[in-house]
Amino acid sequence: MAASSLVTEAVWKEIVSTRSVTDDQLSILHFLFGKNFERATRIVDQRGVKRISGELSGRSVFQVTGESRKKEEYFCFPEHYCACYSFFYDVVNRGEQICCKHQLAARLAVSVGACVEVKVSDEQLALLLSKF
Ligand SMILES: [Zn+2]
C-alpha cells in the first residue's frame, strides 16, 4: 500500500474513534485529496450520503449524491469501489487519485456520524446490488 494510503487510513481511524475532525486532520486530508476533499465535505453538508443496510445481515452499500446540479446518485463502497466516471478514470485507469469524492464523502460521513440511514430487507439490498 502506498504511504499516502497508510496515512489516510490512520487519519480515518483517529476520526472514527473521536467522532470529530480536528484542524490538523482536516489539513492532512486536504493535503492528500485537495479539491476532492472540499467537494466531499460539501456532499456531507448537503446530507448527500445514504447508508443502505440490510436489516438482518447488517451488510450495507452507500448511495452518494453528486454535488452538481444534476444530483446523480452513485453506489459506492467507500474503501473499494464507486460507480462514477472519475473512479474508473482517475483511480483505476490512471492511478492519479486514491479514491473519488463520493468514496471520500462516504468515509467522512461515517466518521462523523452524518449518514442518512436507510434500512431495507436483505432481499431488497440484493436486488439493488444486482443492478450494479
Ligand atoms: Zn465516485
UniProtKB/TrEMBL annotation:
Which residues does the UniProt record annotate as the domain SWIM-type?
A: 62-111
Keyword Zinc-finger (UniProt): yes
**Keywords tagged on the record:** Metal-binding, Zinc, Zinc-finger
Q: Which GO terms describe its molecular function?
A: zinc ion binding
Protein name per its UniProtKB record: SWIM-type domain-containing protein
- Annotated organism of origin: Nelumbo nucifera
